[in-house]
Amino acid sequence: EAEEADGGAVSYALAKLGMSEILAENIFRPGGGTTLEARIRSWALFSSYLRTLGRGPLNYVCALLRQTDAVSGLLSVLVAHLPTPGRRAKATASPEDVVSLRDVVTNSRYLGEEDYVTRGAAAVYRSLLHLMPASVGSWFTEIKNRQMISDIEKYTSVNETPRLIGLELETISSRGDLEVVALHNKSQVVTRYRKDDSTLELVIKLPGSFPLRPVEVEFTSTFGFGEAVLRKWLLSMRSFLRNQDGTIDDAIYMWYQNVEKQFEGVEECPICYSIIQPSDHTLPKLKCRTCGNKFHSSCMFKWFSQGKATCPMCRSLW
Ligand SMILES: [Zn+2]
Ligand SMILES: [Zn+2]
Fold this sequence. Notes:
This protein is α+β, with helices and mostly antiparallel strands. It contains 13 helices and six strands. The longest helix has 19 residues, at about 115-130. It binds zinc ion (2 copies). One zinc ion binds near residues 290, 291, 293 and 314. It catalyses: S-ubiquitinyl-[E2 ubiquitin-conjugating enzyme]-L-cysteine + [acceptor protein]-L-lysine = [E2 ubiquitin-conjugating enzyme]-L-cysteine + N(6)-ubiquitinyl-[acceptor protein]-L-lysine. Pathway: Protein modification; protein ubiquitination. This is E3 ubiquitin-protein ligase listerin.
């Protein structure tokens, strides 16, 4: 299955993104012959390209990448070369001095091999944190080595988190019945939603090592909404924030659209309990011919790829 997903990502990259074959191979399935320098240069080039994409296409590519182990594989290699506290004595580059992706692509500073890898790793890591925070976060939760966890967390919280939180809070905006306010001094976002006479206030707290550790979501005040619906909304806000790559502002907006769709009477997908799919933002469209329930294509893809062949709800053959 992984093989197939990788193949799909490679052909998408070649056909739709116009990537060269070598670049696609270096990104999606680097072999034993691919040097670390080549991988870092390829990723610097690819990330520069991803930064030019709008929200929709970027989300699509990130969702595609998540079906492969391209990002987690790269991160596991990169972290060994980051100028973390334990390594800094040996490395000549300091983390305060992260070079740009462009510098990594062209090596305009004519860095030696070791310097290039250290600085390139830091630059690519920074861009991944920015472009796909949820993917980096889920890779981080899989790490078993405690020393490594602590090194990466320290490095990230000192060198990357303050900048990232600043960028996140800058993009926060209110829409329709949704008022969103950034509290810069507390690294929090307050969301107020009003519907008729009912109001709801949610606080999103960004942790000190964001986005490695997940954001926290809490209600601070509720008025007029039932307990079941509130619980559902809290879970769906968490899910949008943790499962999608993109900004917090995006996640809040997706959550808002999900709530609005619920008031319009759209039924949620019985697999992920959401109307808007939390990672790829599609609506439930695949309908079971027997029970009539509608599911997201990506939720059904996951279901079928676990070897199942029946409807998750009524168990009839799909
Ligand atoms: Zn679903
Ligand atoms: Zn069914």
